[in-house]
Automatic annotation (TrEMBL):
KW Metal-binding (keyword) present: yes
InterPro entries according to UniProt: Topo_IA (IPR000380), Topo_IA_2 (IPR003601), Topo_IA_AS (IPR023406), Topo_IA_cen (IPR013497), Topo_IA_cen_sub1 (IPR013824), Topo_IA_cen_sub2 (IPR013825), Topo_IA_cen_sub3 (IPR013826), Topo_IA_core_domain (IPR023405)
Enzyme class: isomerase
Known catalytic reactions: ATP-independent breakage of single-stranded DNA, followed by passage and rejoining
Species for this entry: Planococcus shenhongbingii
Signal peptide location: none
UniProt KW keywords: DNA-binding, Isomerase, Magnesium, Metal-binding, Topoisomerase
Assigned EC number: 5.6.2.1
Protein's UniProt name: DNA topoisomerase
Domain Topo IA-type catalytic: residue ranges: 157-594
Length: 702
């Protein structure tokens, strides 16, 4: 009998078909007899999730309406159904499976692929079929044929399905119960919104909220340093004394102690140069590629995953949903064999440093389900490369250049540390001189990249002329997250957790979400309007704030809960845990939420920002009318006495710099702000200045 091959989606099925001689049919392809399939085979496909969990009302009519007294939603048995609009394709798969004795799971080689396959298989009602697993990292013809020759049994795959199914049901339970609970309680407070709660998305939103609170609570403070500009025989250089004082007086006293005036003579008393090496970067996992692409081109994590999936299906890169940054000797062998062709492809010829594998890149022990993202054996023609969309070309070249860097030399530079003595007060300078670019040649710096000033040639005991001054600086708040940094934050969120054990667990499971799901989680919280992304900067919305103020102090706000759950889910995937035990724990957690959240929300009080147009944060007394309060409105700040004639207002953005509520408070109460960094002039140059309020208008003070 002909085996039935089930792919996850049509494009994947098409890639498999290219490895055989096939005939297209309605909803499937027929494979002609072949040495691998002597009787031939059928290739069919899902359309993502063909099968999904039923809605709550399918279990009990009372769960069809959102009412607090109808909670909890905890079915005794979980039921699945064919997704709307997908019945025709499901019917084709069902018919094919029922007429064969062997079914091959050829969905994506990860937990989600296992879940998609088995949810379809069990929904067909088939029993007693032999199930095999295709496990490949590339869609190239030779890799596909090799994979079908070396099919695995389904034992590990079945465990991954049990893990994925438990995760799917737990997410459904937390979402269905948590969303209704918080939405209904907040509606009682007058907030007419639906608040989606998620096992992973909710703690992610809360971490973004915490960063924004840190920024808002930050009070800039001045500090004072002593800087010297020294004129040596062959050029100028800068040095700093070892002081960072809170009061200017402290810096003045230090200068007075050493009897140093503005102009002073110095001498170079120490000159130490050390050669340093930086090895080539590690190969890319999905998250490192998402971070780099966001930094270089401002691509969102979701866009990177989508583009990489396309390149994978074009057979140009290996499987993208990987958390590995290493490869095995097999992959290294073909990369080394084709390195010159890869070089010619992008015009990056350089002398090969070595074709011997290095443990830094090649380590089978660090490769589990998938290896790092690398170029495939397929070398695209110049025409095909030019035919790629700009984002495809950028990401393909990033992967290719990172792989080529393995064969390049280290980047070498000389670090020079200089100590300049001015009347007994040492000034310290560190300079860097490139010796050999090595692998850095493969990654040209961006045009706007700052070049470090190089040191002039200096001699030991060389006398120099100094220009000494006290420099005032301001402490700066934490920076808001970029969209690319959200991925890193989710991976390393253990450092935000107080409990040492939870921190270790989060480190072990690599934080919130998985390599394959993090970009989707970010898209979900954007879709729910908890965050916005503007020019790559992530901001919490009013709706997001309300959610976070409501869940504060609850386990839903902490990555710790997810840490403990993910640890047990992994045990299910390893055959050491039980889905029943896990889902029983989720049920207890939901009952605990229902018992504790109403009182907890009462204790938290009414959220600071209500989701109504009239509810605005009062920032300060209006400096003009002295009656109304300055409040934040959409796109500007203004006085609550506007209707009675007060025209005092402030822009939300001034010279391309967003003004915070704290800065507006300074203007209203003190008449000026501390130094604000990052204004942009008409000619595009950035500068720093204080804002001053004079006769109701903003002026700048330098």
């Amino acid at each position: 009998m002909k085996p039935v091959i089930v792919a996850e989606k049509p494009s994947q099925a098409k890639a498999y078909a290219e490895a055989f001689k096939t005939t297209k049919r309605e909803g499937y392809m027929e494979v002609a007899p072949d040495p691998i399939f002597p009787e031939g085979a059928y290739i069919t496909w899902g359309i993502g999730h063909l099968v999904e969990l039923k809605e709550p009302k399918a279990y009990d009519p009372k769960w069809g309406k959102w009412k607090l007294d109808a909670l909890p939603i905890l079915p005794e048995q979980y039921q699945f159904q064919v997704a709307r609009g997908k019945a025709q394709q499901f019917g084709i798969i069902k018919k094919l499976i029922h007429q064969t004795d062997t079914v091959i799971n050829a969905c994506d080689v990860d937990r989600e692929g296992s879940n998609i396959f088995y949810s379809i298989y069990y929904q067909t009602g088939a029993k007693g079929k032999k199930i095999q697993r295709l496990w490949i990292n590339s869609l190239e013809v030779d890799e596909v044929r090799k994979g079908f020759k070396e099919l695995r049994d389904n034992r590990q795959d079945l465990l991954l399905y049990q893990e994925a199914k438990a995760r799917q049901i737990s997410d459904w339970l937390v979402g269905m119960n948590g969303s209704r609970l918080y939405s209904l309680l907040l509606q009682e407070k007058g907030i007419r919104e639906v608040f989606a709660i998620g096992r992973v998305q909710t703690p992610t939103v809360f971490l973004i909220y915490q960063r924004e609170k840190e920024i808002e609570a930050f009070v800039p403070e001045p500090f004072y340093e002593i800087e010297g500009v020294f004129q040596a025989e062959k050029g100028k250089y800068k040095g700093k004394a070892k002081i960072k004082a809170k009061e200017r007086k402290e810096a003045e006293e230090l200068l007075a102690k050493h009897e140093i005036l503005k102009k002073a003579d110095g001498v170079v008393v120490q000159l130490k140069t050390t050669e340093k090496r930086v090895p080539p970067p590690l190969l890319h996992s999905l998250s490192t590629l998402q971070a780099v692409a966001n930094r270089k081109w401002k691509y969102s994590p979701a866009k990177v995953l989508s583009v990489m999936q396309g390149l994978y299906e074009k057979k140009l890169v290996s499987y993208p949903r990987t958390d590995a940054q290493h490869i095995t000797p097999g992959e290294f062998s073909y990369l080394a064999g084709q390195v010159e062709k890869y070089q010619q492809l992008i015009g990056a010829e350089f002398p090969i440093a070595s074709k011997a594998p290095k443990k830094r890149f090649v380590d089978s022990a660090k490769v589990q389900e998938h290896y790092a993202i690398i170029p495939t054996k397929t070398i695209p023609t110049a025409r095909k490369l030019e035919g790629l969309a700009p984002d495809e070309r950028n990401l393909y070249e990033e992967v290719l250049r990172t792989a080529l860097a393995m064969f390049h030399r280290d980047y070498r530079y000389a670090e020079t540390k200089v100590t300049t003595d001015v009347q007994g007060l040492p000034f310290f300078t560190t300079g860097k001189t490139d010796l050999e670019q090595g692998w850095k040649e493969l990654f040209p710096p961006a045009k706007e990249a700052k070049q470090e000033p190089s040191l002039p040639e200096l001699r030991d005991r060389e006398p120099v002329k100094g220009d000494i001054a006290i420099k005032e600086g301001m402490t700066t708040p934490p920076k808001p997250y970029t969209e690319g940094q959200l991925i890193a934050m989710m991976k390393t969120c253990g450092k935000f957790v107080d409990d040492v054990e939870d921190t270790e667990i989060l480190k072990e499971i690599e934080g919130l979400g998985t390599e394959a799901t993090r970009s989707g989680i970010i898209e979900t919280i954007k879709r729910h309007e908890y965050i916005t992304v503007n020019k790559n900067i992530v901001s919490i919305t009013n709706k997001g704030r309300i959610l976070c103020q409501a869940i504060e102090g609850n386990l839903l706000s902490s990555p710790s809960m997810t840490a403990k759950w993910e640890t047990y889910l992994k045990k299910i995937g390893q055959g050491e845990g039980s889905s029943e035990v896990f889902l029983d724990t989720i049920g207890k957690f939901i009952r605990k939420l229902l018992d504790e959240v109403p009182a907890q929300m009462q204790k938290n009080g009414l959220p600071e920002q209500m989701a109504t147009p009239d509810a605005k944060d009062e920032i300060a007394l209006c400096p003009r009318c002295k009656k109304g309060m300055i409040v934040s409105r959409k796109g500007f700040y203004s006085c609550t006495e506007y209707a009675n004639g007060c025209k005092q207002s402030f822009p939300a953005t001034f010279l391309k710099k967003r003004l915070t509520a704290k800065q507006i408070e300074y203007l209203c109460t003190k008449g000026k702000t501390p130094v604000i960094k990052g204004f942009v002039s008409k000619n595009g140059k950035k500068f720093n200045a204080k804002l001053v309020l004079e006769e109701g208008k903003l002026k700048m003070e330098f």
